[in-house]
Write a structure and sequence with these properties.
By secondary structure, the chain is mainly β. It has one domain: Porin. It is built from 3 helices and 19 strands. It has a 17-stranded antiparallel beta sheet that branches. The radius of gyration is 21 Å and the shape is globular. The termini are far apart. About 10% of the residues have low confidence.
Length: about 400
C-alpha cells in the first residue's frame, strides 16, 4: 500500500468535528444576538466575553471542475468565528474558538462543488497563567492549536493579511467525491486543533512551549476517535529586538491510524512508524513594513518503503502599509517532495506533487472593525492544470466586541 493511496483512502472519511444539521442556524442566531450586547468586563477578576468575527467571501476559480466539469466557477460564502472567553480570578481562564462557515469559503474548499454549512471547534481549553518579574508561565489543556510553527493561531481573518493559508497548513491531497460525503484532505500541520496539554514558559526575550497530544498534527484524531497515540511537540523563540523574532519547533510520534495494523509485518505496530518534523520561523516588523516566513521539513516512516517520504515546505510573506487605511501583501510558497523507493526501485513521480503558490492581496480598512481584502493566487502543481487552480478572491471582515459581562 503506497503512501499516496493511504492518504487518498484516509481523505474519504476524514472530517474534523464537522456537523451538518439545523444546529448551525441556532448557533448563528445566538452568536449574532450576543454581538448586540456591549458590557465592559476587561478589568474584572471574573467575567465572560464573546468577541465575534463575521466574514463574507467571493471566489472565482475553476477548482470545482476537477470534481464536476459542469460546476460553476463563482462561489459566495460566509464565516462566523466566535472566541468565547471566561475569566475565573487572576490566574484561571477558559477559551474557545468556534466557527460556522459555508463551503466553499477557504480556497481549498473550492475543489469540492458541493455547498454545505459546517460547524468546527478550533480550540476549547482551560488555562492557568502566572507572571512575576520578567517571567511568565502558562498551562492549558483541552483542544489546542498545534504548537508547531507560527501560523496555527492565525485563524482569524483579521489577523491573516492574505486570503489563503500557507502551504504547510494546506491540504496535501484533495479528492472530492459526491458519493462519499465529507471529504477533507490531510495537512502537514492541522489548524483545527487536537486534544492536548501544553506548558509555556517565557523569560525575558526567550519563549518556550511543550505540548503533549493524543494524535499527530498531520493526522489529528478527536477525543473519542480510535487510532490515538502519544505525541510531543516543542518550540522556542527568541526576540532579538522589538519586532524581530526567530523560532524553532519540532514534533514526533506515530501517524498511521490503527486501521492499517493488519497490513503491517508481524511483530510491528503503528508505533514503529513515526513521523517527525522540524521547522524554523522568523517574524520581522519595522515602520510600515513587516515580513515573516517558515521553512519546514516533514519525514513520514512508512511500511514497505526503503526510504522515508520527506516533504519540504517554505513560505515568505511581506506586508507594507501604503496608507493608514490601505496595505499590500504577498506570499510565496513552495513544496518539494522526494521519490519513494519500493524494493530498491525509485518511483517515477514524487510522493506528492511538488507545488508553488504565489499570492498577492490589497487590503482596505474603513475603520478599526472592518477590513476588505482583494487578492489573486497563481498556482503551479506538478503534472497539474495550472489554469484550473488559480483563484481570485474577495473577503470582507467585520469584528464585534460581542457579549462582555463582569461577574465580580
Amino acid at each position: 500500500m503506497s503512501l499516496r493511496r493511504w492518504v487518498r483512502d484516509r481523505s474519504q472519511s476524514h472530517a474534523i468535528e464537522t456537523i451538518r444539521s439545523p444546529l448551525w442556524t441556532l448557533s448563528l442566531a445566538l452568536l449574532i444576538a450576543a454581538s448586540c450586547a456591549n458590557l465592559a468586563a476587561q478589568d474584572a477578576q471574573y467575567g465572560v466575553a464573546l468577541p465575534l468575527t463575521i466574514s463574507g467571501g467571493f471566489l472565482d476559480t475553476q477548482r470545482a471542475r476537477y470534481d464536476d466539469p459542469s460546476a460553476p466557477r463563482d462561489f459566495v460564502g460566509f464565516r462566523l468565528l466566535a472566541t468565547p472567553e471566561v475569566k475565573l480570578g487572576s490566574h484561571w481562564f477558559g477559551y474557545g474558538a468556534l466557527q460556522v462557515r459555508s463551503t466553499p469559503y477557504f480556497y481549498q474548499d473550492a475543489y469540492d462543488s458541493r455547498r454545505t454549512v459546517d460547524f468546527d471547534v478550533l480550540q476549547c481549553f482551560a488555562g492557568y497563567s502566572r507572571t512575576w518579574n520578567h517571567t511568565s508561565i502558562l498551562a492549558k489543556a483541552g483542544k489546542l492549536a498545534s504548537a508547531f510553527g507560527s501560523f496555527p493561531l492565525r485563524y482569524d481573518d483579521m489577523v491573516n493579511p492574505l486570503l489563503d493559508q500557507p502551504l504547510p497548513y494546506n491540504y496535501l491531497l484533495y479528492q472530492p467525491s459526491q458519493a462519499s460525503g465529507a471529504n477533507y484532505g490531510l495537512t502537514p500541520v492541522t489548524i483545527y486543533g487536537l486534544p492536548a496539554a501544553e506548558f509555556d514558559l517565557t523569560w525575558s526575550h526567550l519563549d518556550t512551549r511543550f505540548q503533549f497530544t493524543t494524535s499527530n498534527p498531520y493526522n489529528p484524531r478527536d477525543f473519542f476517535q480510535s487510532g490515538q497515540h502519544p505525541q510531543w511537540t516543542a518550540g522556542a523563540g527568541y526576540t532579538i529586538r522589538q519586532g524581530f523574532r526567530v523560532g524553532v519547533s519540532a514534533y514526533r510520534g506515530p501517524w498511521l491510524v490503527g486501521s492499517v495494523s493488519s497490513l503491517l509485518p508481524a511483530g510491528v505496530s503503528v508505533s514503529n512508524f513515526p513521523s517527525s518534523a522540524l521547522g524554523f520561523d522568523v517574524q520581522w516588523a519595522r515602520g510600515r513594513w513587516s515580513a515573516g516566513g517558515e521553512w519546514d521539513r516533514f519525514v513520514f516512516d512508512f511500511p514497505g518503503l526503503s526510504n522515508a517520504p520527506t516533504l519540504t515546505f517554505g513560505y515568505v510573506e511581506a506586508k507594507v502599509i501604503i496608507h493608514p487605511r490601505w496595505y499590500a501583501a504577498a506570499r510565496l510558497n513552495h513544496q518539494t517532495d522526494n521519490h519513494a523507493i519500493f524494493g530498491g526501485v525509485e518511483s517515477p513521480t514524487t510522493v506528492f506533487p511538488n507545488r508553488q503558490y504565489y499570492e498577492a492581496a490589497v487590503g482596505f480598512r474603513p475603520d478599526h472593525f472592518q477590513l476588505l481584502k482583494v487578492g489573486y493566487e497563481w498556482t503551479y502543481i506538478q503534472n497539474g492544470e495550472t489554469n484550473h487552480d488559480n483563484v481570485f478572491g474577495v473577503q470582507f471582515v467585520t469584528t464585534f466586541n460581542g457579549l462582555s459581562h463582569a461577574l465580580k
